[in-house]
Write a structure and sequence with these properties.
This protein has about 90 residues and is α+β, with helices and mostly antiparallel strands. About 35% of the residues lie in helices and about 30% in strands. The chain has a 5-stranded mixed sheet. The radius of gyration is 13 Å and the shape is globular.
């Protein structure tokens, strides 16, 4: 019997830089990001993530909620989750 392998993350340099800046002074946000990434890896469409397809220049990508104000933009392909952007709603969309 074949095991379902969890998708791997592909981190865009800009995502890493922004994520580090966001969590730099917030242990709480660091923990929240870790939890959200775990949920995303297990099921990108877990209802609590509020994952939704994006349109316009971001067509083909998805967004999900990190907090009430912060979003993560990602793309799904070949058992990979490409983490593209993170930040306030108005900055990432």
């Amino acid at each position: 019997m074949m095991e379902n392998k969890l998708p791997e993350f592909v981190l865009k340099k800009g995502f890493v830089k922004k994520a580090r800046k966001l969590i730099k002074n917030s242990r709480e946000l660091d923990d929240k990001l870790e939890t959200v990434l775990e949920l995303l890896q297990n099921d990108p469409f877990t209802p609590s993530l509020k994952t939704h397809p994006l349109s316009g220049k971001l067509k083909g990508k998805h967004g999900c909620s990190l907090t009430e104000k912060l979003r993560i933009v990602f793309k799904l392909s070949d058992n990979k989750i490409h983490l593209l952007n993170i930040g306030p709603h108005d900055e990432v969309y």
